[in-house]
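Why should sequence recovery work at all? Because a backbone constrains its sequence more than one might expect. Tight turns favour small or flexible residues, buried strands favour hydrophobic ones, and helices have their own preferences. The token representation captures these environments compactly. In the example below, the structure is given first.
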């Protein structure tokens, strides 16, 4: 569930390249100078990532809006890691702006694995249970002093009402593609299911691209840029984006959340799918089909569960 930032970066992704990374490393971490710098095969939008030798990566934010994640991960990932059942990115160093690059950046240990496409997963229900168990362990981590949900987390961990106006605009724009009455019922139920629990840790972007698989099983969880302390409902969206049928039920059982949290999670899933559909405006039929399946899964579950 990537952020809803406009697709524009004032400093431009094209301004970040291997040569820049080499200069930054040479200037700030000369002990690693001379190691080969190669772009990763599958990169994200918020950051550019490069392999540094065989055992490290360099991660650079692509815009100012993504900068708060750098220090947040640098501080909190080492504290969270010992309590989690699979590895999270080991942070080795925090870089400073330099060589014409305006933001802080980080060096991490490389975590092996493939992203969690269905073809990489041996047992989807077992994998779903592992993801649910990871989220349970994350929620049990001590939240004391953790970053309260807000702008730095793109409002994951806050009530879905933050995106109420945007969701209603999307519903109006997509009335010919999505049943507006059924979708509105899901959204209203999400708004009504207010969260009154104690703040807990959430990841904020539990999606296939941030889950690594080895030997068909969950091997690591990466990209905690939208993490924080608040309402964990946003972490359940993968129930409809990757899982279905038995695997969804396995995830539901392992995640062990109450009906209100699931109602808010359906709202988060609906918001993001509608936003993607509205932004694509029919330009990517394959992606639109995926988002429409998510919408229908959410609406169908709401219809069936009330």
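From this structural description, the recovered sequence reads:
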């Amino acid at each position: 569930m990537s952020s809803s930032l406009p697709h524009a970066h004032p400093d431009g992704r094209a301004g970040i390249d291997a040569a820049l990374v080499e200069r930054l490393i040479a200037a700030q971490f000369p002990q690693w100078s001379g190691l080969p710098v190669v772009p990763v095969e599958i990169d994200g939008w918020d950051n550019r990532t490069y392999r540094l030798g065989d055992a490290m990566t360099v991660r650079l934010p692509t815009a100012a809006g993504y900068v708060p994640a750098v220090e947040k991960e640098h501080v909190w990932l080492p504290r969270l890691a010992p309590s989690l059942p699979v590895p999270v990115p080991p942070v080795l160093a925090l870089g400073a702006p330099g060589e014409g690059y305006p933001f802080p950046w980080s060096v991490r240990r490389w975590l092996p694995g493939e992203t969690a496409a269905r073809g990489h997963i041996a047992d989807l229900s077992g994998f779903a249970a592992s993801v649910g168990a990871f989220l349970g362990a994350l929620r049990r981590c001590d939240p004391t002093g953790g970053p309260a949900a807000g702008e730095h987390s793109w409002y994951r961990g806050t009530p879905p009402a933050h995106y109420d106006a945007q969701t209603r605009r999307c519903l109006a724009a997509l009335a010919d593609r999505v049943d507006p009455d059924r979708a509105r019922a899901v959204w209203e139920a999400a708004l009504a299911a207010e969260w009154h629990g104690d703040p807990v840790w959430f990841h904020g972007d539990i999606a296939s691209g941030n889950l690594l698989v080895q030997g068909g099983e969950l091997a690591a969880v990466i990209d905690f840029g939208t993490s924080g302390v608040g309402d964990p409902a946003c972490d359940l969206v993968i129930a409809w984006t990757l899982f279905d049928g038995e695997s969804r039920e396995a995830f539901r059982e392992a995640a062990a959340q109450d009906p209100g949290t699931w109602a808010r999670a359906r709202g988060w899933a609906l918001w993001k799918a509608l936003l993607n559909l509205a932004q694509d405006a029919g330009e990517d039929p394959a992606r639109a089909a995926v988002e429409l399946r998510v919408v229908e899964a959410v609406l169908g579950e709401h219809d069936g569960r009330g």
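A few observations help interpret the result. The radius of gyration is 19 Å.
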